[in-house]
Amino acid sequence: MKYPEILRIDDVLARLDEFDTIIDARSPAEYALDHLPDAINCPVLDDEQRVIVGTLYKQTGAFEAKKLGAALVAKNIAHHLETLWQDKPREWKPLVYCWRGGNRSGSMAHILAKVGWPVVQLDGGYKAFRNRVNADLEQAPQLDLRVICGTTGSGKTRLLDTLESVGAQVLDLEQLAAHRGSVLGNLPCQPQPTQKAFETSIWDRLRRFDPSRPVFVESESKKVGALRVPAALMERMRASPCIALQVAREERVKLLIEDYQHFACNAPALNAQLAYLTDLHGKAKIAAWQEMASGGRMAELVDELLVEHYDPAYTRSIHRNFTQYEQARVVALADISPASFVAAAQALHEGDAAASDENRGQSPSGTVPNP
Question: pLDDT tens across 306-325, in order?
Fold first, then answer.
């Protein structure tokens, strides 16, 4: 085999998990917007250098730009060789790509091949990968989805986490979006990814699932924070069998205070978010809730928010958007203890094989007993 081996996107994706390292040769800014799953950024031109070379190309011409670019590329690849790849054995097999599979990845792949490594270059680069992700996400996933439904604070995310811990297949869109899906959903010190990166993460999770086993997912809205859930996936979720998670309201209040400590301990930040609800509830109600927050009356505030805002909105939304909710399997938790979630997750997971056969038609209703 002659290296670098140049492969088209279909061939690369068929072998994607076989590469020892996936190298994104684009600039850090390009990489930050989105990249292939598990890729590391080893730019042949950094952001500033890319601007300099591009400007020189426009103002002076291709020859002068290529001379400068070649010198910078050579220095940068040498740096990566010295700092990242000196310990790699002869059998180390990297995949290299840039924007369109041109000079940037070509230069790096050429040098790695000259060293003696069996390097592969992605023909068409990130652009070809992005086109494939777009095309795949336009199709409804051929998976047996089970939608975890439940009012705010019922522990849907905790159940998903516990399901994953006992071996079930889980698609946690809020985790991928770095957002909890409500007006208070921003995670502290964790910005949301870009829309493209969010879609790549979803695509990567979907491709890894075993289609013969159920995949558990939460009953999300079309948007998780600022990010849009792919329309075909959303449509499939809304037509899938549902699981109705139920827990007493006082337990939901406890759970929300636990999960939103960053707001419970920071009344000004909480009050700023509550202000976004003014159009729905009026200035007087928002002022009263803000006073509760400032006075440390957090349990009282959360309870009112559930009764007057979250629960009515959930009831309207779930019946309108999830067509199989009326036949949902009920999971009733006695409390929000870890033991309760483990028992519920095990009951769902242990029966998923038989339930998968049943739900190729329609999900039977039933109740998972309290642990």
Answer: 999 999 999 989 999 999 99
Residue with tokens 């909890």: 180
- Residue 171's H or E segment, with its range, is strand 169-171
CA 368 – CA 333 distance, rounded (Å): 9
Which residues are annotated as catalytic? 98
Q: Which range among 100-104, 171-175, 180-184, 326-330 shows the weakest confidence by mean pLDDT? A: 180-184
What count of other Cβ atoms lies within 10 Å of the Cβ of residue 185? 16
Q: What is the pLDDT of residues 30-80, one digit of tens each?
A: 999 999 999 999 999 999 999 999 999 999 999 999 999 999 999 999 999
Whether the Cβ atoms of residue 371 and residue 334 lie closer than 8 Å to each other:
yes
Beta carbons of 162 and 345 less than 8 angstroms apart: yes
CA dihedral 214, 220, 223, 229 (to 10 degrees): 10
**Dihedral in degrees, nearest 10, Cα atoms 155, 161, 167, 173:** 100
Distance CA 180, CA 203 (A): 20
Q: What is the C-alpha to C-alpha distance for residues 120 and 112, in angstroms, rounded to an integer?
A: 10
pLDDT at site 266: 84
Condensed to tens digits (0 to 9), the pLDDT of residues 122-165 reads: 999 999 999 999 999 999 999 999 999 999 999 999 999 999 99
* Phi, psi at 246, each rounded to 5°: -125, 140
> Which residues neighbour 42 within 8 Å (Cβ) at sequence distance 6 or greater?
23, 24, 25, 80, 84, 108
User: Under a CB-based contact definition with an 8 Å cutoff, are residues 301 and 260 in contact?
Assistant: no
Closest CA to 123 of 4, 281, 287: 4
For residue 4, whether the previous peptide bond is cis, meaning omega lies within 30 degrees of 0, is: yes
- Contact call for residues 368 and 333 (beta carbons, < 8 A): no
Q: Is the pLDDT of residue 335 over 50?
A: yes
Directed axis angle between helix 125-137 and helix 195-208, to 10°?
A: 70
Contact present, 247 and 152 (Cβ < 8 Å): no
In the chain, what is the greatest distance between 2 CA atoms, to the nearest angstrom? 75
